[in-house]
Amino acid sequence: MGSDLELVECMHREEGLRELNCSNCKYCLSFPIKAFSEIDTLVSKIKDLIYNQINLAWDASKVSFFLKVVLNEAIPNAVEHGILGIDSAQKKALHQELSADYPAHIQKRWSEKNKPVVVSLCLSPKRILLGCHDSGEGFDPELYTMSSVNKNSLLKLSGRGLMLLDSLGVNLQWNAKGNSVLCSISDKTLRERKLQLHFDKIFHVGVEEFDAQHQKLFGFFNLLLNNLQESSDDDTLLATIVELTNYVHLHLSAEEKKMREYNYPGYDKHKNEHEYFSLQVLSLHDKVQKKGEALDIEVLGFLVGWLKNHIAKTDRGYTAFFRERGVS
Ligand SMILES: [Fe+2]
Ligand SMILES: [Fe+2]
């Protein structure tokens, strides 16, 4: 093991989060992080530990994806909400005011506080358990429930890669205070399957045509997730995004047509939601096409979150209306 990797007493056991079974950890490590620029180095260190030091036979692309999403979501969240005390409304205002300078602004304020975010890692052949701990007053209550992940509240979220992980079968937990998040991924998941979205019954709207289209939309997002996990080239990624963009247009138009045909009373509000989503998908398309930028996990998390929320709430709002009119 590298000299800068120091074994520590398991932080998760100290916090009493025994349900995650830390007693079998092979390695318990902690890393104090003081700058966002350290995240990539930390991902490399952890991968080195997994593959070169303890030699676990896990799918490297899935491990990288897991580590990158957790660290790139949990650390900024810990800094913004936990250490700097910025709430959702303030964050939105700062984003509007500072735009591209926002990350540098947050980094500067974080450096002045001189408070690290501590990343903890418990590695065992059974799973990776990654924690992110800050010294603040807890996560933004608007974004997370305090003691555990509440699926309904997560469904309301947007723009969060952690929610994307939750959708992909990663176990997420918060401590009671809300300033420690633990993300655990099992050996079974890392060995046996790709991280994928699952189309379960809360997404059934009862209109056959739309259920089939929603399932296909999930399929496109799963293709994008595969592209990310396999680090596909830009052309493959763009081709998937083009197909997704076309299919989003087809689906939203089909729903709107049916709603107009039957004078659905929630048409205007529903259409507004569609327009917003279309714009986000188009801007993702333009971003990847023009700048050749890597697909942003947070953007993907936002789109997946939005789609799940829209289908489960807004689309399911028309289920009874169409059923009463014999449309199924
Ligand atoms: Fe829909
Ligand atoms: Fe819809």
Explained architecture:
The chain starts with 10 loop residues before the first helix and ends with a helix. Strands 1-2-3-5-4 form a five-stranded antiparallel sheet. Helix 2 packs antiparallel against helix 3 and helix 7 crosses helix 12. Helix content is 56%, strand content 10%. The chain has 328 residues and is an alpha+beta fold. The protein contains 13 helices and five strands. It has two domains: 182 residues, 2-Layer Sandwich (Heat Shock Protein 90), CATH 3.30.565; 124 residues, Hemerythrin-like (Four Helix Bundle (Hemerythrin (Met), subunit A)). It is globular, with a radius of gyration of 21 Å. The N terminus is likely disordered. It binds fe (ii) ion (2 copies).
> How large, in whole angstroms, is the Cα Rg?
21 Å
Structural class: alpha+beta
Percentage of β-strand residues: 5-15%
Q: H/E series, N to C?
A: HEHHHHEEHHEEHHHHHH
The main sheet orders its strands as 1-2-3-5-4
The main pleated sheet reads as:
5 strands, antiparallel
> How many domains, as an integer?
2
Apparent shape: globular
